[in-house]
Automatic annotation (TrEMBL):
Transmembrane segments: none annotated. It holds the Pfam family IU_nuc_hydro. The keyword Hydrolase applies. Residues 4-315 form the Inosine/uridine-preferring nucleoside hydrolase domain. The keyword Lipid biosynthesis does not apply. It comes from Neobittarella massiliensis (ex Bilen et al. 2018). GO terms for molecular function: hydrolase activity, hydrolyzing N-glycosyl compounds. InterPro entries: I/U_nuclsd_hydro_CS (IPR015910), Inosine/uridine_hydrolase_dom (IPR001910), IUN_hydrolase (IPR052775), Ribo_hydro-like (IPR036452). Keywords: Glycosidase, Hydrolase. This is Nucleoside hydrolase.
Length: 323
């Protein structure tokens, strides 16, 4: 059993990821911290509470954190997840609204909770981040010695060769708060970055998988229903329903590292200044020409995952929906 804290800007794919983590017998979620990103903070916190309730296993404490990035205005992702982050089911004719959550938030700020939980653990624990890195960077600035006790950080974020609809080259979680991301990436705790191209493309779920998830019952229905906006976007664009699950892929890779079929070690930085490149993740490998020209080698602080085995991910997701 591996102890983890999950930091999340809970919208539809985060919701699936939380349910998977809470139903994965190899993981023990000791706390959930929420951050603004896909949706404003209040909605992210509400959606996290709802997801814990749907998981139907145990209820770790849930703490609300930072309501916006360190130095720039918040940008959300309504167009991908719906205005409420969970498919706007109560606003859509013919859809059954999701059950309201009765699980309360735990008092206290997520940044203080991160520090307190990490400090209280006897052994170093893991952190999985599924949203912008505002909470984590703030905790690192506030209590660096405690945050250095983290064993490892697994980040859903970044992109190797990917063009975001909003920017030329940044992935959403990093783009929302690039300064926070660069603080985390240079802090010194080892990182696994599960990039967007690992989570999209071949790992995308098509119509037959949507049907098989629904056949699993309430959890499978939840996985599909809360992703309604993304599924309908795909139906409108391509004629068939499909959706990506970046955050669940990241939890799955943490739980089953062998699922990552393409990975490499890298020095990792985030561009914070460029007009066209703000939020871009820079993966600098030892054999890059740039590295070879430096007097000292750059530290290899991160492992970058660019591909997962889609079948293994699908089996993991199905097992979490069925159990
Ligand atoms: Ca997320």
């Amino acid at each position: 059993m591996r102890k983890i804290i999950i930091d999340t800007d809970t919208a539809s794919d985060d919701a699936v990821a939380l349910v998977c983590a809470l139903r994965d017998p190899q993981l023990q979620v000791v706390a959930i911290t929420t951050v603004a990103g896909n949706v404003p903070l209040e909605l992210a916190s509400y959606n996290a509470r709802m997801s814990v309730e749907y998981a139907g296993t145990y209820a770790p404490p849930i703490y609300a954190g930072c309501a916006g990035p360190l130095f720039c205005p918040l940008e959300t992702a309504d167009q991908v997840h719906g205005k409420d982050g969970m498919g706007d089911l109560d606003q859509t004719p013919g859809c059954t609204p999701l059950r309201a959550s009765t699980i309360p938030l735990t008092p206290g700020h997520a940044v203080d909770a991160l520090i307190a939980h990490i400090e209280a653990e006897k052994e170093p624990i893991d952190l999985i981040t599924l949203g912008p890195l505002t909470n984590v960077a703030t905790a690192m600035r506030k209590a660096p010695e405690v945050m250095k006790k983290l064993r490892h950080i697994t980040i859903m974020g970044g992109a190797h060769h990917y063009h975001n609809p909003h920017t030329v080259c940044a992935e959403f979680n990093i783009m929302v708060d690039p300064e926070a991301a660069d603080i985390v990436c240079t802090f010194g705790v080892p990182i696994t970055m599960v990039t967007l191209e690992a989570c999209a493309g071949r790992a995308r779920l098509g119509p037959d998988m949507i049907e098989k998830l629904r056949a699993c019952g309430e959890i499978g229905d939840f996985f599909v229903d809360c992703n309604r906006t993304m599924i309908e976007n795909a139906r409108a664009a391509e004629g068939v329903p499909s959706f990506d699950l970046p955050d669940p892929v990241t939890v799955a890779v943490f739980s089953h590292p062998e699922m990552a079929t393409t990975r490499f070690e890298s020095h990792l930085r985030v561009e914070t200044k460029g007009d066209y490149t703000r939020g871009m993740t820079l993966f600098i490998k030892p054999d890059d020409f740039y590295s070879l020209t430096l007097p000292e080698p750059l530290p290899l602080t991160a492992e970058i995952v660019t591909e997962v085995d889609p079948q293994q991910f699908w089996q993991y997701l199905l097992a979490c929906a069925r159990k």
